[in-house]
Design brief:
Blueprint lengths: L1 H15 L14 E6 L2 E12 L8 E9 L5 E11 L3 E4 L13 E8 L4 E8 L7 E7 L5 E12 L12 E14 L2
Parallel strand pairs: 2-10
Antiparallel strand pairs: 1-2, 1-10, 2-3, 3-4, 4-6, 5-8, 6-7, 7-9, 8-9, 9-10
């Protein structure tokens, strides 16, 4: 009887324990690093299932935020509409926010307390130098990691009159995280 009581107590404790989530309150988990025009950049990735331009649960989007020391968003890299499969995929041209393309990459800059977008960049030209390579993928656990790089150009809307659009070269990009499933 004592063994049965001990077993029931352990089962009850396990059932009532709150499982700690790996994800933060927004679904972000993992780490990401890159160089932007040769400067080190570190961000926190969120990897989410999407069905925009895809069958349900057949694509992901990766949103990587860079925060300053006060915890305010200063920039982000978004790689969107990615088929869930290992291997290298070319990142496509997508110069306008309304233009939805498979495997697109964009970069945004923020100011104020992280809620004011001050610049938006995206792939200008599709070529083999702009890519995402999913190197590890475990669909059972959601673990995913990979590499990416791309050259992005500032949208005309964000470029002051008379100036040429800025170009940012994102190189040596890596990410490691989990696919967030609600």
């Amino acid at each position: 009887m004592k063994k049965l009581t001990s077993t029931l107590l352990i089962v009850l404790l396990l059932a009532t324990c709150k499982k700690e989530s790996l994800f933060d309150e927004y679904g972000f988990y993992g780490e990401s690093h890159a160089k932007l025009n040769g400067e080190a950049w570190t961000g926190k990735p969120g990897i989410f299932l999407t069905n925009v331009l895809c069958q349900p649960d057949s694509c992901i989007g990766i949103k990587i935020f860079y925060f300053n020391q006060k915890g305010e968003i200063r920039s982000d890299i978004t790689i969107d509409h990615i088929p869930i499969r290992p291997g290298r995929q070319t990142l496509n041209y997508g110069r306008h926010v309304s233009q939805k393309v498979h495997c697109s990459l964009s970069y945004g800059e923020y100011t104020s307390d992280g809620d004011v977008l001050t610049g938006n960049y995206s792939i200008f030209e599709q070529n083999d130098d702009n890519y995402l390579d999913i190197t590890e993928l475990d669909l059972k656990t959601g673990d995913i990691s990979g590499k990416f790089q791309g050259t992005v150009v500032r949208h005309e809307f964000w470029t002051p009159a008379g100036q040429q659009p800025d170009t940012i070269r994102i190189t040596e990009g890596t990410f490691r995280g989990k696919i967030f499933r609600e």
